[in-house]
TrEMBL record:
Keywords: Cell membrane, Membrane, Transmembrane, Transmembrane helix, Transport. This is MFS transporter. It comes from Subtercola boreus. InterPro entries: MFS_dom, MFS_trans_sf, TM_effector. The chain crosses the membrane at residues 21-42, 54-79, 86-107, 113-129, 157-176, 182-199, 229-253, 259-283, 295-312, 318-340, 352-375, 381-403. It comes from the Bacteria.
Amino acid sequence: MAIITERPAWRDTLISLRIRNYRLFTFSNMLSMTGTWMQRIAQDWLVLELSGSVAAVGITVAMQFAPMLLFGLFGGVFVDRHSRRAILIGTQIALFLFACLLAALTLTGVVEVWHVYVIAFLVGSVTVLDNPARQVFVNELVGPANLHNAISINSSVFQLGGLVGPAVSGVLLVAVGAGWSFAINAVSCLFVVAALLMLKVDELHPMQQALRAKGQLREGLRYVASKPAILWTIIMIAVLSLFTFSMPVLLAAFANDVFVVGASGYGLFNSLLAVGAFTGAIASTRRRGIRLRTVIISAGVFGLLQALAGFMTNQLFFSAVLIGVGFANLLFITGANSLVQISSNTTVRGRVMSVYVLVLLGGQAIGGPLMGFIVETWGAHVGMAISGLVPVFAASVIGVILARQGRLRLRLHLLRAPRFVSIEPHPGSTGTAARTQLVTSRTPG
């Protein structure tokens, strides 16, 4: 796999968009992500209005992510065996139908909480195939040389949708209710289908599809366990999924109970989070490469900022910290995604990414209700603080374990710039393999 060894020129920050297929897919994806965020915000607030319970919002999150927890690994096997483009066309049509159903129920005034639960579960079931297929399909659109840049742009698009979607949804919630957010999301799915049909197939970078064989699921799991860069990244993601990524639950509690700003404030908080995340995603396109230590450190910084938000009692300061949380979140998530993809062989990448997505989304199926319980029992401030401090502790433990395995030490250089802190081997240490485990993983295996 081609490796970028020098920081790209500013003119090449969005180099992947020069590829027609990727550009077409990305612009349609931008509309789709805006619609997805609109539905996500409207759905969570609708449940809060219907039930009056933050825990019910956590259950909604659990219903949407539970299918990934239950069936995610099998989704990866399916993606490795079949055309990713065909899979995405099918999943987008299914998401269109579910959004139409939720819009119809809401606009006619007959929607109940259990309706939202069921549709959230169905949407999550489609995600079992859609998410790993989408992750792997990026490689087919741009090729390996531009993969890291394309992943960063994808994250930028997702967060741009997170910037626009919550703001628009918040306005619609106040003006006309949740139903129209669902309807707009349904239409946005059709743009993705149209873009996929318009791609020039002969310009794709086809990846080898795995032949049907016994033991492919076990093979994928063994592969993940054998690659330290993948394994430790996924462990870190598991911790964050359980405690930190349940922001809909936490922000709903802050908007409803702490600052009493209603649906519009909830949308604003999500938009501020997306402002920081969009900035972080753009910044990540400037990376020369990605290292395991960078992923672990960024996870710790991410958790620290989120814990800090839990101690904010002033809305202005809370809002400012949310921007930092979003920035750190995206530096972590783009780094983790890139590291896992670049470190995996193309023939098992669908299964590897299904493990990644299973942990990322499936963990939230448990984390949503868990954080909902913590918030309802001890309050929003305690919930937010716990959601940040746990990953800080986990990142510290993982860092210590890897440093000992690699016989590394942290050194301060008070009189030397630009690096005042560095991670170096102990004098006389020959732990090259273990050190590589912590420091870098830029080549596939």
